[in-house]
Amino acid sequence: MTDPMALVPSDLLERVTRGWRDMSTRLVQLGRDRPEGNRGVFVNPAAERGSTVLFSSLEAMDRAGHGRYGPELIYGAMGSPIQHRLEAVIAEIEGGAQAQVVPSGLAACTLPLLAYLGAGDHCLLSDSVYGPTRRFADRVLRRFGVEVTYFPPMAAEGDLQALVQPNTRLIFAESPGSHSFEVQDIPMLGRLAARAGARLVVDNTWGIGLFNPFAHGAHVSVQALTKYAAGHSDTIIGAVTVASDADWRPLRDTAIQAGQTAGPDDCWLTLRGLRTMGARQERQAATALGVALWLQSRPEVSRVLHPALPSCPGHEYWARDFSGASSLFGVVFDPAFTQADMTAMIDGLSYFGIGASWGGYESLVLPTSGGISRSCPSVTAEGPACRLHVGLEDGAALVADLARGLDSMSAARAVRGTG
Predict the structure, then answer these.
(1) 319-359, pLDDT tens digit by residue?
(2) Is residue 237 assigned to a domain?
(3) How far apart are alpha carbons 393 and 288 in whole angstroms?
(4) Backbone phi, then psi, for 220, in 5-degree steps?
(5) Could you tell me which residues carry N6-(pyridoxal phosphate)lysine (predicted)?
(6) Residue 229 lies inside a defined structural domain of this protein
(7) DSSP string, 92-114
(8) Contact between residue 179 and residue 134 where contact means Cβ atoms under 8 Å apart
């Protein structure tokens, strides 16, 4: 079996994995109790479950209610001790000041749209955003009187400036796009937002811990903690992080008013998952890079959409702004193959599960052409395309699995050509 790691140059391997290694110690230490005096503590904090919170007096209850912008225990639907602990950890990882944990990644995407936009406002969204975010913008924001314009993720600053309107209040980016993997120029979008007096929201799920959005001009960072943070494909949870009080208060108020808080068990599982995220992703990112380089050498493959490779749109921004890479990337096949060819290949794989999401310990595959809504031309339209998430399996086993699938795809095409 081919060992894909033999294809990886040592300097590129270091570049891809350094960020994960650098954060591993912090991930183990953050948000934990420490023994004091003769008092012992559990390594993992407890998940306290509850709805009603009791107070010693009405005055104490009223005082707690006025502390809703901090980690105050008020009512179960407004946050629990383990949620507040997780929020503090996420804020530090993201480089922000405050974080709101919510029930899903989609809730994290939609909460800032609800918090910062109103009837008559205009929103610019990257055409590469997560499909359900797009659906929310088209079916809910428009119904509430918000104008929505999609922009090409690799558009130049001048072209984007032409799309800004006097009522533009928010720019929403996803970098890299979770289906087409364009890495966006976030500092440029930050300049654009500053000139417009708008907020820049970045879906930073792929780059958790590897990219500090606030150091590059963003006001709000979105995380689907379901992915790398929870890490075991058994939790649905998200977070929104901000750096300023002016951004925090409307976000927190909207979360409370919409009932957007996560349950204590999901928070506990995510906090536990974070402890090993650095170690998991250092290994998975390395294997993913090896698999990507191997795929790049296959005749069936037209382009590999891995941000660490020059073949990916916006690679130069990844090289400039990120401290590492994740284990999710895309593959575009030669246009001579059909969508049906790719479907048969995917159906025949053994180690790559077919399913939505990513970031867990297991490898996954999902088509990214034929069913993804886009307003602008996408690199995934160049040929049949799919997304691969590389898990903790042995890289040689994954390559052998893909090799069997690609060989079968080529053989089927050859038979079709001679039939």
Answers:
(1) 999 999 999 999 999 999 999 999 999 999 999 999 999 99
(2) no
(3) 10
(4) -140, 140
(5) 227
(6) no
(7) HHHT-SEEEEESSHHHHHHHHHH
(8) no
Name the residue type at position 24: S
Cis peptide before 4 (omega within 30 of 0): no
Q: Has residue 325 been placed in a domain? A: yes
**CATH assignment of the domain containing 363:** 3.90.1150.10
Q: Indicate whether 161 belongs to any domain.
A: no
Joined together, the tokens standing for residue 85 give 């602990």
The model's pLDDT over 362-416, given as tens digits with 9 standing for 90+, comes to 999 999 987 677 788 788 888 999 999 999 999 999 999 999 999 999 988 887 7
* Burial class for 35, CB neighbours closer than 10 Å (0-12, 13-18, 19+): exposed
Which parts of the chain register pLDDT below 70? 1, 371, 418-419
| Number of structural domains in the chain | 1
Residue environment code for 293-327, b if the CB has 16+ CB neighbours within 10 A, otherwise e: bbbbebebbbbbbbbbbebbbbbebbeebbbbbbb
Residue 1 pLDDT = 64
